[in-house]
Write a structure and sequence with these properties.
The complex is a heterodimer. Chain A is mainly α. Chain A has helices at about 10-20, 60-90, 95-115, 125-145, 155-170, 185-200, 205-230, 235-280; strands spanning about 50, 290. In chain A, helix 5 (about 155-170) packs antiparallel against helix 6 and helix 6 (about 185-200) packs antiparallel against helix 7 (about 205-230). Chain B is elongated and about 110 Å long. Helix content of chain B is about 55%, strand content about 10%. The chains are: A mainly alpha, B alpha/beta.
Amino acid sequence: MDYTRFTTRSGESYKMDSAVMPRRPWRKLLWVHQPYPDNYVDASFLSQLKRNLHVQQYSFWALSSDSTVIISHVYSVAIFVCVFVAIYKDKYNPAWFASIGSICTLVGYFAWDGLGEENTTSRTATAKSAILIVSTLLGLSPVLKSLTQSTSSDSIWAISFWLFVLNIFFHDYSIGSKKTFPPTLSTNLAIAAATVLASRLSTTLSVFSFLLFSIELFGLFPIFSRWLRSYSFVAHLILTSILAVVTEVGMFYIGGWWALGVWSVAILSAVFVAPGWLIALQKYKNEIQGPWDPAKPVLRSR
Amino acid sequence: MDHDIDGSQNKLGIRGENRRRSNFHIHLPSTPSITTLTRGGTSISGARSVPVSSANSPTEENGKSFYLSLRNSQYGRQQYIPEHTRRDVFLEKNIGLHSYKVGKRRTKVIYKYDEIFKYRERVRATIKQSAAHPSVTRVFWPTDCVPQSLEPSVLVGFRNSRSDYVVIAIFPGINITRMADTLRGLETLEQPLSETAGLKGAYDPSKLAVIGTVNFKSKHGLPLVVEMSSRVARPRFYTQEAPTAVHKLNGHAKLNGEYGMESRAMPFQVIFYERPLPRRLQYFSFMPITLELADRSSFNADEDRKKLRSRRVLVDQMTKDTIFGFPQTDEENCINNWINEINLSHELGTLLENAVSLAAVLPSESHSLKDRIVIGTKLLFSKTKNLLSFLWSLLAMAVMWILIGGLMLYRVASEAVLMIIEWQPKSSIPALKDISATIQQLDLRLQQACYWPIQYITLRNQKSNLFSNTTFHPEYIRFYNSLWLVANDIIIGAAVGAYIIDNRDYIVSFVDYCINEILTTGLRRTIEWLMDWPGGLKLNNELAAFFGELFLWVIEFWGGRYLRIFKPYLPDIVYLIGLSGFVGATFPIALIADLISFLTIQIYCCYLASARICNWQLTVLLSLFHLFRGKRRNVLRNRIDSCDYDLDQLLIGTLLFTLLTFLLPTVLVFYLTFACARLGIIIINAMLESSLALLNHFPLFAIMLRLKDSKRLPGGIEFDLVEESAIGEENCMDTVYIRLKPIALPVTAMFQQYFLLSKRIQRHYLSLRVIALLLTGQFVPIQRSRLYSLQYSMLPENRYGIWELWFRLHVFSVTVRAEVKEKFALITSR
């Protein structure tokens, strides 16, 4: 069949042609030769448009309880900062914090060991690596003490601040149970921040205690808390509230009423205001799906 | 390849530049001149049509088809490029066989088949056409041997083909048959001329013949009939019949009718050349003269040589097919043949002239022609005739025996010294000559002295044969260049030595000052500064103190304890350096370089230690950084993999990472200080050593030759269009006059080695790689052997052994004795 030639530039010639000869309706088939220009758009084109296909509706309480996972990590960072300030200002004996931390760790370890699943590492191996770390810390403490003597405090604060911010962003907040260790980067960032801060302390004992505490807090505690929230979410909520109380107390001792107020407001808004805000923003959501999207392969479950 | 079309010059110059085979300059004649030549060539023959405007015509000259136009144009189809160059350059640049460097080592070749096919078709067509119709008769005409008077003369020369003649001499006042008899006679001697020692294999005796006449009135059967109106006039070429015998009635029509179809009626191309004088060591050469030894000529670093070689092998392999494999004909390689014949022309011409004149002088009744020629040549070859020269050669022989004994003694002694110098207990331990500049210089001088006798014998053997043999000229230049350089060195050295000895006190006090102020106090002050937060850099106090004390101890240990022992001997050492000047200026320079290396050993030690520490720390930091990110380097696959570390690994690794990061600036500052100091010392030594290279290797003799007589240093040949003849006279052939001139070796080619050296220094010491190595604290190697290969480029790679020398000296003495005996026999026979 000899088709009329179409000009793609002007609609005029096209209309004239259509007036001359009746044509088949346009079909969405590339392999068929059709009497339409290449850039022809049919009226039926947008009929398959779909909106907000995959949007989920959130419930307020679910969001708010999930946010406690983040909050608990922020609490541990806050506790850490409080402990540093306490030691740095020589208010408290640093050995106290190390011993409290160690006791908590032991308790946590036994709880994890007794209640938990099958152990991947034997107890002797754990004890060995614990001894290794402690002795390394003992050896390195004098070196670390003098590491940043010539650097000014301001740069140290800035470095550790950014390291903690990155640590909070890269932390693993997943709820499902995974047996792997927490992601290495966030742990490393926290330990680096702790090392940098520890180098500001004045005595070898305080450096050692502080680093031991920080290793317990950032190396071991995330493993425990993740295991706990996969074990029972209620237990996680209880742990979070214990942390909250400890942090509030710490804030009060470090910064007084003023710090306590600001901190409480920030936490409360994170737990209660932020989920409400997110739900309120849902109505602006506008996702468009249509036949022009790349096809998604449908995978059958095995 | 450069090919420029220059309308103003009308030159067809071919010049091989350097030894690099790929650098050939082709100066093409301007387009109009070629087209006119072609037109001139076709008009006389009339009936034959040369496809002036065919696809191959020179008018559509461009870079891609210039070879074809050369083949097809007036200049015949001779290839003006040696074969290997033609293949390499032409295939790579013009046909689409491109070789690329891929990665570090590999070379890749890409064909473009359509271009190859086009090329093949054109070449075949051209060969077929030009084999059927040679378009021109080419005559090489010596301008310097035209006889004084214009009496009838005979042309003697090489008859290479039906259309290719090289005239080597013009003999006036002799008839053709007698000249031909003489030539034949020379070949029928007991030892024919072409079989004598110097001429053996130099030319093809069957080609040497009487090939034409000048101003002959009578008719003869020779191919060239030449008329010259005056001595300076251009020779005019005629058809077989003398001009007087031509019918004057019908003019052009008749002429065309009679000769137009004949192949003999081709236009002439006369190429003037001035015969190079072999006694003055002048010669023509297509390839530029190489001033280095052949096995040393690719002074390029080993990797360069390898790269070039691999490329050549690859191109050869890729072109071993039917597409490129068309056969090479004799005509295509004839340019080397011409040059060889031109180089022989003067000496051969003189020989013939002597033979002819002697044969004429001797009484003809007592001897046959053959006998006369025999006597003539004998007289010719015996150059010395009297008693005095006999006595002189007797004396020379006696001196020679003494000299040979001395030389052998010297050679044995120097061999012993060389063996000590070059002894390497293990391949990892450097030999003495690689450590010290002085010993290296000594090694060079000894090796040179070992090579001189052999060079001299080679030269002398050549000299007694024939001067036209051009292979020994570079050897001659090399020999006298090295002799002259040594003489120069000693003259300059005497002056320098005297200066040093005269100003000994001042120099001693200066060196003392350097040792005290710069090497001891200055260094100590620098390190103390580094220990105390240099330039506001906040270094780690404890580590800086540790490093500072360590390096201070090293400096005190060397400067305070050992240099103090050394100091009292300083005046003697300076005196010694001054004295060594009388052996050559190179020795004080080398000694100073060694002295600097000796006095700064402590800096070298500090540099080594700090570099090791810095490099170690950077390596550890890098792997700890991978750990910090939860990655790990996979050595097997040479990539970074992610990795699940254990908790204790992570904790300790991160602690160490933080620690080392904060300690890095301290280590880096100390390292960089010593690296800079080391770099300064290297630069000073490099300057001293490049002055050594200048004194040892400067092409003094070559430059002198270039100024005095540039024909002794040929760098290629050049064709120059002189004139196109007008067609005036009947029977006179159309002729194009071209001049063949030698191109002198360009000055840049003489200094080629220095360019290469500077390029290499640049690549080894001023590259980004070196900066990266320096910054990461890795060892920057100084490849002395590479840098010094320039110094040895005039010497053979393996020196001649003692027995070899003895053997050559023996053979030499035997020949000298034989000469003396011969002279004695000559005297007694008289």
